[in-house]
Structure formats: C-alpha cells, structure tokens
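Think of the structure tokens as a kind of shorthand, similar to the way a musician reads notation: each symbol stands for something richer, in this case the local conformation of the backbone. In the example below we present two proteins back to back. Begin with the first one, reading the sequence and then the tokens, and try to describe in your own words what changes along the chain.
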Amino acid sequence: MVNVLMIEDDIELAQLLKSRLYKDEIEVTIAATPLEGLSLFQTKVFDLLVLDLSLPQMDGMEICRLIRQESPIPIIISSARSDIRDKMMGYSRGADDFLPKPYDPQELIFRIDAIMRRLHPTMNKKLSPFEVDEERHEITREGSPLRLTQAEYDIVSYMIQKDRFAISREELLMNIGSIKYESSLKSIDVIMGRIRQKIGDDPKNPRFIVSVRGVGYKFVNE
C-alpha cells in the first residue's frame, strides 16, 4: 500500500480522490489546511505528497519549499493554477510533477505509479487477478477458470489487452468477430451485465469492468 499525504482544502474533491485511489492500493490521508498537513508530515511517514497551491493560511509554494528542505519525498502539485510561471516556480521549489485541475483521478494514479516505479524499480509488480490462456482458450480469475460464452470470452480477452483504456461499444462491435456488427449497442450492455455477474463484479460499484460515461467501458485488471 502506497501512503499519500494530500493537502487539499476542497474536501469533497479530496474525499472523491481518496475513495478512488484506495481501489488501487493507495492510502490517502487528507489535510484540509497547510498547518494540519505540516503537522501530519512531521508525525507520520508518507511515500508521496499531493499538494494544492491555493490554500488558506499559507500558499502551497511555500509548503513545497519547506517540505523539500526537510525531505526528498516526491511531491505532485495538483492545482487549478496552471500558468507556466506557477509550473516553473513549483519545479524550482522542489516539485516532481505538476497536474493541472481538473483531471481524471486515473491520471493521478498513473503519475503516482510512475514515480513509485522509478523510486523502487525492484518493487514486485501487482499480480493481475485475470489471466488469458489462448492455447486453452480460457480465462481465469485468481487461478479459477471462468465459464464464458464465445462472445464473453472474446470481449474479456480484448479488454484485458487494453487494460485501463476506455473502449467504446462501437469498437467492441467492430473488432470482435463473435459479435455481429449489426448487433445493437444496447446488446453490449446486456453482455457486460452477464460478464460482471460471472466474474463476481459488483454492478453497483464495479471494480473490474468500469463504465466510462459517454464512451463505453474499461477493464481494470488488478
């Protein structure tokens, strides 16, 4: 589990990010004010800091400078202040990355993962619960084979190959031979419902097959 300190005064946003990052084994501790954040930093051990700039009490740039004086902890600035001068100042104060708001939480996850891989190149790769065995024409979850129809197998196999990338219904219809292109887009949703049931995914809070509004779906194989 990666432990992250997030200094962010938008509590609603911070809670949303905390909930989403936890699914990727990233534990977030939220500090709503700079003083609370600095206090937490002094008393607990964190792997990474996510820092807003426009904060009460103290500007985020000053927090970045103070923390960098004391620690080499990776710092990602997450701010709506995305002017080139703010970016330049952030990097000069010791930030490792700058993520302009608004952004998809998945992008923050990617950046955290990239920094952690750089710092810990020997870190064991997360084991993926789903594996595709093309020779046996079989997909397993944690070693147990799934009972899938041909269309379901083809869809899951295709989505696993494009792990985390959003896939439209049209793309699935065009690239999977066991689904006729003449089939309706709605039929894809029906098939996805069956697949979720067979792989043990909660339809109300899916972990593996995630709906992407206005696009389609993406498969998260971890």
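Once you have a description of the first chain, move to the second and do the same.
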Amino acid sequence: MTSPRTAQSDAMKDLSTQMLWDELLAQDPESVAEKSGASLRLTDGGPVFTLELLGAPCELDGRSRTVVSPPGRPELDRNGRIVLLTYLTKSASGPAPGLADREVGPFALPSGQLFFRLHHELPHAPLARAFSDDPGALAMASEAVGARGHANLAWRARVLPFAEIYWYLDPADDEFPAAARYNYDANIAFYLPLDAVFALTCMLANTLISLKS
C-alpha cells in the first residue's frame, strides 16, 4: 500500500516533470540542442531530442512528452526523467560553457559542502560493497557505460554530453575497508543543480552494479 507521503512525493515529481516539459518546449529547440549537446529532430508534432546517457541514446519526445530509455537499459524512473529534462532546460537557460576537463570533488561544487554533507550521501558504500572483491568487474562495467581509465582503479565517463563523472575504488587493506568516491567535471553545475547531480550519480552507481557479471 502506498503511503500518503509517498503518494504526495510522486505527485510532486509528476508536476515537476510537466513543468519541465512546459519550460523545455517554450525554448527554441535548435538553441536547446546546441547548448546541451543533444541531437535534434524536428517533426510536425514537436521536437525530439536525443541525449547520450551513460553511453547509450535516450530520446525525449516533445510530441508525446515521453522519455524513451536507452536500448537494453531499464526504463527510467521519475528521477531519471527529471534529470534529463533538467539538463536540457538548464543548458538552454544558462551560459553552457562546455566541459572544463578538470575534476573537482563534490564539496567544491557551489553549495556542495552543505548539500552533500548534511542532506544527500553519495552512493559510496554500495559501489564499494559491490566491487571490493572484484575490481576487474568494475572495470568491465565502467567500459560498458563508455568510461575510460583515468588512473589505477579510476574511471571517468561523459554521462551526459557536457556532464562528466569520475569514480574511484580504493581497495581494502589491513586497516581500512574498501571505499569508493566520486568527482565531477568542474563545469557540471552549469548544467545540473545539485539534486540532479546526486540523482545522476545514483543512476551511475546503480547501472554499474547492475552490470556486474
């Protein structure tokens, strides 16, 4: 049985989704595509945007206001759809400077120290638990989402056209258990607010774990 609080949260997310569609479809679609790095197909019924999400194409159809998940990937939940719509609308309304090609920690993002320390714990533990005994499986899963090696037991991936995430696995030793951590392209805040950065990181971690062979 769905709790009243869950039902209220779902209703708010549905409203947020519709408001994001309204905002997106009010923009010039060619400008949206240029500033976000999306592919664009114009139809009589409205624009259709294609974004590379975790190395696979994801289609946002303005005609039907639907999001089609990448082939072979699970259907995106509300949070996933909100992340993609937010990315497009924020790209269109801001300076959209592209990638900085420089990584920063989550606390270095604007307001990141407060947001990530007190409100949203990044999925360090799930990734470490899943791969602590098999770093090779993490390497294979990382390659499957289009990542490339960044250092020893470290990868980076362009999870959206102008949003990169770096992730690291620190193996266990005699003193400390295995640990995982995440960094970001320094310009990611131009494309996603912190709650969307958090949701995208969780999506990445869940995808990597699901790909473990």
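Compare your description with these statements about the second chain. The longest helix spans residues 4-25.
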